[in-house]
Each structure stands twice: as C-alpha cells, then as structure tokens.
Amino acid sequence: MIESFRAGALARMGLGYEDIKALNPDIVYCTISGYGRTGPMANKPGYDLVIQAYSGLMHLTGEPDGPPQRVGFSLV
C-alpha cells in the first residue's frame, strides 16, 4: 500500500499502519511525504505547486522580468 496523505491523516480515518497490519500482517505499507513525518513542516500538505515554489523551480519559468510561474504540468 502506498499513501501520501499528511502525517496522521490515514490513522485518523482508521487506515493507519497498525489498522491495515491487523487485516493483513504481510502488508508492505509505504508512506510518502512532502516534508517528512517529523519536524516543523510535517503536517503541511506537500502538493506540486507548493514544492515547485519552495524548490525555486517557479523562478526559472515565465518571462525574464515577470513573476515566478508554475511549470505547465504537475512535475513534482
């Protein structure tokens, strides 16, 4: 199972690792996070537009003297 919700979101829905493991002890449970599961930004959503902005990628797109713009497709 692969999940990419904010930290603790699936556990609150009854679908955390322990809940799923009780249904299938052989489960492989992969958690992906934009900012990690600990630290000051662990509970922030890590979606494409935000990651493009934080990474500086938006600074490289658009007009030379214009504001940052997102890449035309979901890249992150």
TrEMBL record:
The record's section on SUPFAM superfamilies has:
CoA-transferase family III (CaiB/BaiF)
> Where are the bilayer-spanning segments?
none
Question: Which keywords, in A-to-Z order, does the entry hold?
Answer: Transferase
**A Pfam family for this UniProt protein?**
CoA_transf_3
Q: Which GO terms describe its molecular function?
A: CoA-transferase activity
Gene3D superfamilies found in the cross-reference section = Crotonobetainyl-coa:carnitine coa-transferase, domain 1
Mind telling me which InterPro entries this protein's record contains?
CoA-transferase_III_domain, CoA-Trfase_fam_III, CoA-Trfase_III_dom_1_sf
Query: Does Cell wall biogenesis/degradation appear among the keywords?
Result: no
Family the entry assigns: Belongs to the CoA-transferase III family.
Please state what the protein is called.
Succinate--hydroxymethylglutarate CoA-transferase
- Say which species the protein is native to: Geodia barretti
